[in-house]
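Lab notes, practical 5.
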Amino acid sequence: MSLKLRLILIINAVLLLILVLGSILAIDTAKKNVRAEVASSEKLTLYLFEIGVLNNPKYYSIESEYKPLNLQSLVHMRHLKIEFYNLEGKLVESNISESRIQTMDQAPSWFVNFMGLISDPWEPKRLPVEILGQAKGAIIITPDPSYEFGEIWNQLTGIFYLAGAFFILTNILVAWIVFRALSPVEFILKALTELELGNLKVKMPYLKTSELSAISSKFNHMVKTLRLSIEQNHRLTQKLIRVQEEEKKSLARDLHDEFGQSLTAIHADAAVLKTLAHKEYPKIKPSAHAISDLSKHLMNLVGGMLNRLKLGVLNELGFEEGLIDLIDTWKLRHPKINLQYQVNVRGIPQTNEIISIATYRIIQECLTNISRHAKAKHVAIEIQLIKKNGASKMIDIHVKDDGIGLSKSHRDGFGLSGMRERIHEVSGNIKIVSEVNQGVSLHIQLPLKKIKNK
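Output from the prediction step:
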């Protein structure tokens, strides 16, 4: 649930609670007022009947029949139902008429029933009528709060209409205030999204609200600090990569000059020993052959190490043939993995040595990761030189395997981090698509442009 909707719902809940409490208080007050008013009317009516009818025997003649009390003249007594019953229990006269019923402010039956439930029951008053000691019947006075309930209903209806209008206006005002106050949140979310996507140049605009203005200022300062930190890390990583390349060249030179020459000498001496063993010392013949085979094996091993360390294969075979040699050599070492590849990078400018080295190291790292971690059975590699208007524009690399893939919680190791840094160093980009047990697909693009050595 959004913050805007939550605030509006909370405010509406508070208003509704106030309305309910106000309605309960109004109904309770009205209930007390109704009882007081009806009771007062009842007492007054009883008093008037006692002094006006019962204590006035001249109202009747001894010889004549009972004269009507003319209760219809008391139709204005809205709070009481006054009825006269004769000795047989027959209703003779009442102050309730059809016209009075039609003009009553009727409340809904459910409201009347509700008010009856929460009110104390009304007891009718019975007033016997005797004329000159002779019983004539009885006047029954029953409290009738219908008019009062109707008035209460009308009052509450007016309050509800007013409350409804107030609710609508309040919601419009609150929504306007909340949306206006929280509109800068959209800028914050947009800036955070840009930052999540790697845009370190994003900047949050100045926000007028003091609290949000502080957030804007802190965010911009954080992005600036983060950008400087990442740039520094990139420079350090790139420096580390260059130092590694220099160390590899130095190690390759030492292997070639020292270890390689020593192995060559051992191999030559082993050849001499083999000749002597064949002619004069047959007992040392197995050892001479072992020394010769071992030295040859070590020479081949050192040769492979030199190619990987010094990248001399690129100078000797060329860029495209060097990549093909790298892939073919890997295929020979991993015969159980079916590797299909396509390399077409002829015509790369000689000035792009850094691109050549980066491409070679990236493919080398991809193959190393596949052999160590992927557990793949099939691998496909495609390296193409993309041209535009007849000029080389970029190197496009696709590497795909059907191995165990990468989990969502996967974190880059040193090899993948180094690959990203090489790509970043040449202003390239990389896209990795992977699902668990669905393999890994890498799409890398390296732009061909003159890169200054740093």
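Observations recorded by the TA: The radius of gyration is 52 Å. The CA atoms of residues 35 and 338 lie 98 Å apart.
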